[in-house]
Amino acid sequence: MASKIGVYFDIQNIGGGLDIETLVTQAQEKWGDTTPVVKTVPVLADALDVITADITEKGLDGVLLCGASPRADADLYRLSVQVGHVNLREQCVLSYKNADGTVPDIRYGGAPQSVAPALLAIQARDYVNMGVVKLQKSEKPDPVAIAGVKRILIIGGGWTGLTAALEAVASGYEVALVEKTDKLGGAATVIPVGSPLASPWANKQPTNVADKIREVMGASSVKVHLNARVEKLEGQPGEFTAHIASAAGIVTVTVGAVVLASGWTELDDKYLAPMGLGKCSKVMTASRFGKLLLDGQITARRIAFVLDTTLAEDTWRDASPCASPDATPSAPENVNAQDEEKPFIKENLENIRHLAYSNAVNSVGMLRLANSVCEQTDDATQAFILYKNMTVPGIFERFYKKMQNRLGIMMTKADVTDIREVGNDVVVECKNTLLGMDFNLNVDLVVLPTGLVPTTAKDAVVEFAYRQGPDFPDMELFDGFADSNYICFPYETRRTGVYAAGCVRQPQTLDACEEDAMGAVLKAAQCIDSATRGVAVHPRSGDAAYPVFNFVRCTQCKRCTEECPFGALDDDEKGTPKPNPGRCRRCGTCFGACPERVISFADYNIDQIGSMIREVVVPKDFKNEGPRVLMLACENDAYPALDMAGMRRKAWSPYVRIIPVRCLGSVNAIWVSDAMSKGFDGVMLLGCKYGNDYQCHFVKGSEICSKRKENIAETLNRLGVQPERIEQFETAIDGYDTVSDLIDGFVDRIIEMGPNPFKGM
Ligand code: SF4
Ligand code: SF4
């Protein structure tokens, strides 16, 4: 709890819009001995010597920096005491507009003002007071360090797992490698010569998977477990215990982190049955063709490689609603709301999507297979590649161009409308081709795409000894993929310390799997290091605080253990939570859930935000002094979007007060009650997108908040307060063009509604 706070105002960043001397006087008068230093400095970033000297001379235990957003130059201010920021630049001065909607010409860096617009001065005063009280209710956290074991468990001995093992060894880590079959190499062993793996990205290249296997088997710091599986994984990052079961029995190994590289399995044939798969022996998937080619068993000389799956899709689409397991499903990219009502489609949606997800791998793969079969037969093969979408990622474009000119390969865009056996031939009916005509191709063999389904969609590749269950949760949300936020945090699963790489994360080519393996090992190393220092690894990297429980008042309702998105909380037989700080990502969802409000972080807690809300001066005269609206903004996307809006002078209503929260999942209903009883007229919750295309950094925070919001709205309704006074909005980090309109629209609706009936009570 900071009790001697130094407050510093940055003239360069905010002086162009505010009368800073008045703010200094107001802070001195209001906070007295709590703020023994209140001063202006020409430029905050240049005032570190001044601040450090004040800390020593005045015995400060907190420093409040009033100027730019905490996102600007935050690393500069790593001081010996707690540091707070008041964002008077982006979210006050630069985003200010008058009540009548006009935007004054304010520039930061401008000459200091002696008079500020009245509502801007009030806004700045509120924010400074909120900043002081925030520091008063905050403590410097003490990290809980864990003895990080410098050993990485790698699950899966295929191309990705082997690469990960070698990368881990090169980085100084021991490795326990678990492979479920009796040999290493996985699917890569049937690709002796692959698509390009390096510059100039136009030529086939040997994969040399045998060399990788030899290297791994020869590494003294790698212990390989074949015919084995991870029967149980318990503990937390830095100190997991893996129970590895094999014919020899169970061995336990302690590891600091896990790389999940268990790969993929092939999509069930039934999804390509409309294209002849399973019905005609001359129709097969690319993966089966690859194996036969390796064994020299391909005798066909006219081969159609069909990337286009519209034929199957059209059949699925035409299928009437049905419950029969033999019925065909709808196409991945064409699934619409009506289709989703069809029972078969609904049940199999995640499987169906894998064909669409796998298109890049199949595009590059079919180019490779066509090239290989032409080479193997001394160019005596005619390979027809028929595609609707040829997806060659990045620099593979060079390989694609080379294959376009290759003798024996003919490529065209085409809608394949029928595949049927006629005598010894298979006839492929092609429409809308690039040749400007429809035609039938008579071939000996048809190769269809392979749907890559992550192993996690089918099996429990690792069983967690966690309160929330043995598997990764909500796999249906991720279509069976273990990766939990592919936009911002690739590799991360919903189990902290377990990083997915390769095709278990997303269908990808060999070169991408290698990069993935490196990335996941890097995250695993980072995780072990962070656990050793007792700080969060991501997304709040370096955060030393963790949730502390007041068990005396806990009613064992289990809401926190159930809602924690990362399974960080176990519990005892009575339901008392048992925290695992190493698994915790510091999102605060648990304390948002707790009805007793007994969970807190040293530097983020219920009382702190409640006190900040109560610190805002809410005028009683709604008509003349306007409403007050509280915004709780997620610090991951919403807060930076607001900052960027401010920088672009996308101004918003002066009646709004913004408080950043770690995630909307951390919003406790009591804050909304506090705001309403204080007299706020409305509450905005601004966070990330949720649902299937979620972007919430803590996976479910926004979604959980929306459910809590409904409950709060119901309560308000019962009390005779319009539930519309509480609204949740979604934004992304690039939503800076629209956030000000969202705010102004909400404030306009509040003005129409009139004052909060609790105001002044
Ligand atoms: S802060 Fe988040 S990750 Fe940590 S225990 Fe609470 S809900 Fe779980
Ligand atoms: S939500 Fe609160 S009261 Fe309920 S079990 Fe967790 S700590 Fe205890």
UniProtKB/TrEMBL annotation:
A Pfam family: Fer4_9
Domain 4Fe-4S ferredoxin-type positions: 545-574, 575-604
Keyword Iron-sulfur: yes
Cofactor dependence: FAD
GO molecular function per UniProt: 4 iron, 4 sulfur cluster binding; metal ion binding; oxidoreductase activity
Domain of life of the source: Bacteria
Keywords on record: 4Fe-4S, FAD, Flavoprotein, Iron, Iron-sulfur, Metal-binding, Oxidoreductase
PANTHER family: COB--COM HETERODISULFIDE REDUCTASE IRON-SULFUR SUBUNIT A, FERREDOXIN:COB-COM HETERODISULFIDE REDUCTASE SUBUNIT A
Similarity section: Belongs to the HdrA family.
Name of the protein described by the UniProt record: Quinone-modifying oxidoreductase subunit B
Organism in which the protein naturally occurs: Candidatus Desulfovibrio kirbyi
Classification of source organism: Bacteria, Pseudomonadati, Thermodesulfobacteriota, Desulfovibrionia, Desulfovibrionales
Gene (UniProt): qmoB
